[in-house]
Amino acid sequence: MKLTLKIWRQAGPREKGALATYQVDDINPDMSFLELLDVLNESLMLKGERPVAFDHDCREGICGSCGFMIGGVAHGPLKLCTTCTLFMRHFKDGDTVTVEPFRAKGFPVLQDLVVDRGALDRIVQAGGFISARTGSAPEANAMLIPKQNADRAMDAAACIGCGACVAACPNGSAMLFTAAKVTHLGELPQGQPERNHRVLRMVSKMQQLDFGGCSNHGECEAVCPKGIKIDFIAQLNRDFLKASLTDEMETLKRV
Amino acid sequence: MELKSKAPSGPIETRWDRHRFEMKLVNPANKRRYKIIVVGSGLAGASAAASLAQMGYEVSCFCFQDSPRRAHSIAAQGGINAAKNYQNDGDSVYRLFYDTVKGGDFRARESNVYRLAEISAAIIDQCTALGVPFAREYSGYLANRSFGGAQVSRTFYARGQTGQQLLLGAYSALALQIGLGSVKMYPRSEMLDLVVHEGRARGIVVRDLVTGAISSHSADAVVLGTGGYGNVFYLSTNAKGTNVTAIWRAHRRGALMANPCFTQIHPTCIPVAGDHQSKLTLMSESLRNDGRIWVPKKAGDPRAPQDIPEDERDYYLERKYPSFGNLVPRDVASRNAKAICDAGLGVGPGGLGVYLDFAEAIKRLGQDVVEARYGNLFEMYEHITGESPYKQPMRIYPAIHYTMGGLWVDYNLMSNVDGLHVIGEANFSDHGANRLGASALMQGLADGYFILPYTIGDYLARVSPKDRLPADHPAFKVVEQEASGRLKKLLDVNGSRTVDSFHRELGKLVWEHCGMGRNEAGLKKALQRIPELRDEFWKNLKVTGDGANFNQSLEKAGRVADFMEFAELMVRDALVRDESCGGHFREEHQTPEGEALRRDDQFSHVSAWEFTGVGQEPRLHKEALEFEYVHPSQRSYK
Questions:
Q1: From the candidates B63, B130, B209, which should be mutated to test the interface with A, based on the most A CB atoms within 10 A?
Q2: Closest by Cβ to B278, choosing from A35, A48, A151
Q3: What is the ipTM of this complex?
Q4: Residue B275 is part of a domain; what is its CATH number?
Q5: How many domains are there within chain B?
Q6: What long-range pairs does A248-253 form, CB within 8 A, spacing at least 24?
Q7: Regions in chain B scoring below 70 on pLDDT
């Protein structure tokens, strides 16, 4: 297979970027998209050119490091798939493919396809946890959790924090990411004591950072490699409304 | 040098309790005066950093990824063991201890392993409290499954993403502490070296991977939770970034490296598809619970697997090991796959693969049940290969997956360098020569949540925070200069081969001679070839760009440079350990059935190596292993 790649090149956070065109021949259909970039980078380095920078680590779709816009779609054309598990057999010989970093106000570009997604960590730091001190946990089977709740919590907890939802959203919103954590912990009995506090803190932090609001486009769900449902945003909204009517709203003012 | 394991004596079930009582405590009001550096944010690192911060210590945590949530623990699929005996099938702390010592082929410390088994139940409690969505029965109780090599169901799991959920639990505990300001987190920061002054670990030198800035960080104790060295083989199931640098730099500064030749090959990985291959993907071993492994009886059978009738298939594990069948330990399953492929019976491209078949499980349980158990694994397999395991058998082949060796530590998880603690896969402690399935997650979290937080106090109570060096102390400046000099050297070579091309060649070399099967001639050949390759690396490497900004090929070059030195030690250890045990299979030493044959009279010890210089013969120290409770026997899984 042969492909023409148009890749966003940007030397640093404050440099100007532009698309550069590369031709890659002899592509094996069993290669992943990242392996295609490996092959391109090897040839660039041997020519003394700077290789294309991209985040990646596990290369099996679970760590959430990788991800960029392929043909204008976060993680590329295949549903339920991260960039690292996108294989070249899904492209046609002779295609031209545009590769750009995730674009969102909350994700500044560091170099080429690498963006800073630290803002997602800050949302979790604001409240995406259960404050269970090490050593203070009760016997695990002392607390029964109906299977349906455990399953729904797991559906939400499957989020890998890649940021595709933010990049796909026309508003650059982190609602799906936040909603997944709020639903995961809100679904479990051990998450109840901090439930109101959690949703208020996380939403408030999200608003302070450079993320937009949700206006129900549904682009986030469409690109999510783990199939996180937009229903969770409805759950977040319900939780947020309920929490807003409690006196824990007071605590929010102290955030 | 005498290696003091500090393992307590007395009845094994009272050792940890008594040891905890005998250790010195740090006064609660004084804890905030102590500063601890934790390198790595995987299960061990994140749980340790969070727990230490909760106790009041001042903690800094470093990871090379863009977020602590991405550490490679996240990729563990199958589960975590705990001796809860929820299934009423006769499990106990003692049985988990026994299985782990025996599974490790009698090359681990009994005291450490017993403690691990003892703590296992509390880990499940802690993770549940943190909101880890473990699988549940309809009754609401926790579910279990049996897992690779165990005859009881003691494995807890969260679909096929147990590592992810446990890590996100530890990450959330860490995030809470970061938000409170009790942990200072440094993402995209790589440890370049350890600073040792007057025999004590004083801090680390770090490179900010975005700006390229090199800085010093001083502390009262340093904790390395930096994972294993499986990527020395280039192709492994490890994430691309996992590396040996942190523990290798500590080794160069005096920490002993123990049993580096103990590497684990995982039997169920997706076979290599071509030369472009950058990593291998593991398919959880839990698949062996319901999948049946076979090859066609006729070599090169051209038929599709589903068209081959039952009597023309060889279910070789079920045939050779009737009581364990497809659930034999990892090393046994791996070696059998290699043997059958070496005999020309393998399937798929290059004949390096065997079938793992679910047809019977689907018939017996229904597709729904199989999907609920393994859905995400099947999906992952189909993504990668384009084949559906619901319709045709998977193809699998062994790959490097975990490394049991690592920095030598005592019972307190402290290395021979005062103040340097090592946790999780980075240390050598609990798994002996072979790790049981679902025990890595258990060990990482045991170290981080429940062992290190107490044992580090015993060290800290003996040192004063007033003796902490300022980060601009000459001891730090010297190391900073060495680190930046080394990066400059890598950039200045300006040769004609890329880092990956060297890494690939090194990986092939060690896989061939120090992989599933090892022998004297092969190991000697590798020992001769590695220094030559390392010389070429330093003469002909090509790294573009400079050190003053984000430069991924420079990061890789630094890591591969360390693998080039480490590989030689691993091979040497494999050569000197002239016996077979667990994952270390010396072809010269096997039973008539082809099983690993230990030589307890000569090798019932930990080999701990001291660095004496690059290319110099390292010095060997031995820690004798005594087995008071589980008496060494030949493993048999027939």
A1: B130
A2: A35
A3: 0.97
A4: 3.90.700.10
A5: 2
A6: A248/A196, A248/A197, A248/A200, A249/A200, A251/A197, A251/A200, A251/A201, A252/A200, A252/A201, A252/A204
A7: 148-149, 635, 637
